[in-house]
Design a protein that fits this description.
By secondary structure, the protein is an all-alpha fold. The protein has helices spanning 3-24, 29-34, 36-54, 58-63, 69-81, 88-113. It is built from six helices and no strands.
Amino acid sequence: MSKHDTVIRLQDMRDHALEALTLIHGRSRADLNADRVLSLALVRLLEIVGEAANRLPREVQDRHLAIPWAEIIGLRNRLIHGYGAIDLDIVWRIITADLPPLIAALDEAIRAES
């Protein structure tokens, strides 16, 4: 994979994570139950983050150990294949607690790979 493609995938991860944070700005956990479009959008954004992570070669992942690759890819798989049993409490927790430090780690990875 070229350096350019690596940076694009890392940027995809960061940009979709940022979009998820933007969508929940000013919202509460209860909004996920009340707004089906919001919950579907957030799940889709997390799926894209995981898909972009899955497309990065192992050697790239190994250079950025602060990023929890296996968890991100595993979440993508659970969301795609377990779509009938998505726990919105977990989705909310991931977005509010896990995405901000992930975005910071992705920004660092993007700088390192550029």
